[in-house]
Each structure stands twice: as structure tokens, then as C-alpha cells.
Amino acid sequence: MDIRTALFWNHIFGSPVWALLMMIGLSAIIVGIVLRKHKKVRNVLLISGFLSVVLFVLSCVGSIYTYVEISRYRPEDEYETTKPIESKIIDHVYLGYPDEEINYCTVRYTNNTDEEINFGGRYKLEIEIDGRWFDVEPEDAPVTDPMWVETDVFILQPGETSEIEFNLTPYADLEPARYRFVISDDGHFCCYSEFELTESGDYLWAE
Predict the structure, then answer these.
(1) Whose CA, among 46, 59, 141, 159, lies 20 to 30 Å from 74?
(2) Is the model's pTM score more than 0.85?
(3) Domain locations along the chain
(4) Pairing relation of β-strands 203-204 and 132-136?
(5) Does domain 85-204 have CATH number 2.60.40.10?
(6) End-to-end Cα spacing for the chain
């Protein structure tokens, strides 16, 4: 289940309407038990009451299931940029061939300190939905760490600049939205580079 579908159904299953339906159902069951003389009305109330309770239970199961699915895409162990590295997207390249697709963004990193900085090791792509960031799962993702893609470790000397190409090919059919690359080392440092994919398929980023 993709993140947008999970968020949609979680919103549906989490609606207070289901709790109201359960209260009405329980009331119908109680009234149905009391009305012993009116057999037809009693049966209708009991059946409708039990159905309401069953629907409420199913909504709870659905809410829990979609919450677990959302948790798969919620970024974990992310840290603000603690190392003074300036990151800037400078280019996007897409080349489509019959048997191969080349799709990547180039990000320029600059070390603005007087010390050597090591970073990298893995990166991932995130999408912004309703003001919150969620992981984008690549195709053929590994089971152990499905959201991260391994990359080289980079060393920047003081004042040095390095350009890194982030492969977008594993992320097939990206929808128009705001995205960001997250590059990390051993989980104690993250650096973010944002861009926007428009309806027309253009990639936009801050100059």
C-alpha cells in the first residue's frame, strides 16, 4: 500500500462516525433485548445493532492496519543538519532509451568549515504530504533497510566542493509533489536537498 492510499484509508477508518455508529448499535441491541413482545422490531434492532458493532470493529482493524502502513513510510532516526555543509541541486538529467532509463539529479555539497568532513554512505528520497515528510520506497528495495540506498562515503576538505548524482530510476512514476534527498552517514547526520516535481514533469529547485 502506498503512502497516499494509507493516509486516505486511515482518515476514513479514524472518523468519529464509526464510534457514533457503535453507540447507536449498542443502543439498538439494548432496546431490542428490552422489547420482548415486539418480535419483528426486536429482531431488526438486534441485527442492525450487531452489524453496527461489527462495522466498528472492522474500522478499528482498518485504522490499526493503515497506521502500521503509514509507520513504514515515516522517517526514523533523522537528524537536523549538524555539520555545516551547504547543499544545492544544480542539475537534472533524464534520458529514455528502449532498454534503459537514465534519471538523476546532481547535488553540489560545499564544506564551509576549516575541518575535514566525512559524510554519505546512504541516501533516500522523501515526499512532502500535508506538511509532513514521508519516505519514498524504491523498487526492489532490500528487506532489511528498504528506504535507504547505499552510496559512497565522501570526504570534503575545508572549502572543498563535491557533486553527487542521486539516481531516481529506482523511484518509478513519481507524482507531482515536493521531494527532498536525504544523505546520511551512520545515522547521526542528515543533509537535505529539496526540489519540486511539477504537473508538467519539470524539476524545480532553489537557485
Answers:
(1) 59
(2) no
(3) 3-73, 85-204
(4) unpaired
(5) yes
(6) 35
